[in-house]
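I'd like us to work through together how a protein chain folds, taking it slowly. We need material for that, and I hope you will provide a protein of your own picking. Go ahead whenever you are ready, and we will take it from there:
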Amino acid sequence: MQRTPIELRHLQTLLALRDTGSVSRAALWLHLTQSALSHQIKALEDFYGLPLFVRKSAPLVFTPAGKRLLALAEDVVPAVDEAGRDLTRLAQGTQGTLRIAVECHTCFDWLMPAMDAFRQRWPEVELDIVSGFHADPIGLLHQDRADLAIISEHEEGEAVDFHPLFRFQMMALMANDHPLAAKSHVDAEDFRDETLITYPVPDDMLDIVRQVLRPAGIEPTRRTTELTVAILQLVASRRGLAALPLWAITGYLERRYVSARPITPQGLTAELWAATLPATTVRPYIGEFVSIMRETSLLTLPGIELI
């Protein structure tokens, strides 16, 4: 009998290709280099003598052979994942908690879909967001008030495990008729005589201040508000400028409510990470939630890049 080279990792790769639509994005999803993923695909194609997808198609188009293996993947991978979760339940019991602390005001746009997907896989785990905004979510981990923290910066030496989520672009927001809307990008100097509208958080948590304004010695007038929609309303009425993630404002830009420009010629990028105590390695469902956050973000948020 002919030995088949099909392994679970091959089937997981096919699902990643289906969901992301490209080899490069699938490689990021699977924590592989693009070269390693391409080699994996080519090994399957060489064994069977059939291409699995149309090269240079965007989004990726599967061949009949690719569709057949994809159908197998759609049956097998979920079944294997479900069996793994069941074995974990048998070994550790069915009860558990996952309390999430968030320092990012705009994170709920992508966090809620991830939580919904997690509940379908782990319905017995009590999932909750620690109420309120927290300037030190890692402190909540050490106080046993949270099991996972969403943070924008990670520092080596902390007694926690850091899990990369994604990188994204911060955009400067201005009214549609603001003179800065005529520029291709804005610089630190453009903020000098403006009012900067932000969330009421420490400056070290504001990428626009930490990475752009403070190094340039720019200290604009400040105004704060808790709500994203309030920031956008103030910007639209020419009360000041703001800086928000591209994925958080795409709908408003499509409706031409405000205008957005890159910050500096190179653009201003920021990152999000998850942090857990090392002891959470005994609770595999927390690790799965990290994977779900990465997966749902890659599929639903515009302009992000997995770290």
The chain has a mean pLDDT of 87. The first strand starts at residue 53 and ends at 54.
